Amino acid sequence: MKFMNIASGSSGNVSLVMTDEAAVLLDCGISLKKIEEGLRAADISGKDIDAVVITHEHSDHIKGLGVLSRKYKVPIYTTAGTIKGINECRSVGIIDKSLYNVIGSDVAFQIKDMTITPRSIWHDAYEPVCYSFTDGRKKISVATDLGNYNDYLVKCLSDSDILLIEANHDIRMLEAGPYPYHLKRRILSERGHLSNEASGRFIRQLLNDHLKTIILGHLSKENNFPELAYEAVKQELMGNQYSKDARDFDLHTAFRDRNDDLYEI
Ligand SMILES: [Zn+2]
Ligand SMILES: [Zn+2]
To answer: How far away, in angstroms, is 241 Cα from ligand 2 center?
Structure first.
């Protein structure tokens, strides 16, 4: 399988997941031009995309969906709640209803040789989910935009070979920063975003002996720095049962506005 993060953060989220036969976009929160640039870096084009799966209706996840769907007629997979949210978002424009495929949490679906499983997450959207992707041999899981997690989600995402997990904010920067009180409360709430420390604790529970790459994503521009996120998560991973030194893991932060490396497993 192959995985590439094309953009990550509050200014837009898109990832690319590929198996031998299928190419799937996860979220569509940047301009089509930038998505096409990312696809070119992976040696494919918009015509090669078999499906786009959407986590939730916030604009940093759907901004480019209308344009992409009108140009390439790509089938869209997401929850009924998220479709309702997308329909309420005028800036996306008209999306052909026949492109929608309604999916539900914990019910796996198939795109060619790729099996995709959505899982409910805690976030202030209608029906948000995160996803795991597998070709039957390897597993890639991506979870951003979640204010909390539980043992069930840990169980669902464990056993992955590549993880992209949100490390949204440094709590001290957020508390001392310029955001209005209600927004700070929202981000810190159970239906907001994971702090760097919470992300580290979550990832620690997802470690296994074949996990190859951990990417920290959805970093806040105002309330985080890549170095802070990396250090905080590294601290949480120290002395775990798989490795005494967190540096043994390929741990890094995703780029906000340009594509990351193409990872192959
Ligand atoms: Zn987001
Ligand atoms: Zn969101």
So the answer is: 32
- Residue 253, pLDDT > 80, answer yes
Strand duo 129-134 + 139-143: pairing: antiparallel
Ligand sitting nearest the alpha carbon of 146: 2
The closest of 29, 36, 31, 39 to 8, measured between CA atoms, is: 29
Inter-helix orientation angle 65-72/32-41, to 10°: 70
Phi then psi for residue 58, to 5 deg, are -65, 145
pTM for this entry: 0.96
State the distance from the centre of ligand 2 to the C-alpha of 145, rounded, in angstroms: 5
**What spacing in Å lies between the alpha carbon of 145 and ligand 1's midpoint?**
5
Using CB atoms within 10 A of its CB, is residue 172 exposed (0-12), middle (13-18) or buried (19+)?
Answer: exposed
Antiparallel, parallel or unpaired: β 213-217 and 262-264: unpaired
Q: What is the DSSP string of 205-229?
A: HH--TT--EEEEE---SSS--HHHH
**Residue-level pLDDT at 258:** 83
Residue 244: pLDDT above 70? no
Average pLDDT for 181-198: 95
Q: What is the mean pLDDT of residues 93-111?
A: 97
Alpha carbon distance 208, 139 (integer Å)? 12
Ligand 1 centroid distance, CA of 10 (Å): 5
Give the strands of the sheet with 250-253, arranged side by side: 109-111, 114-120, 129-134, 139-143, 162-166, 213-217, 250-253
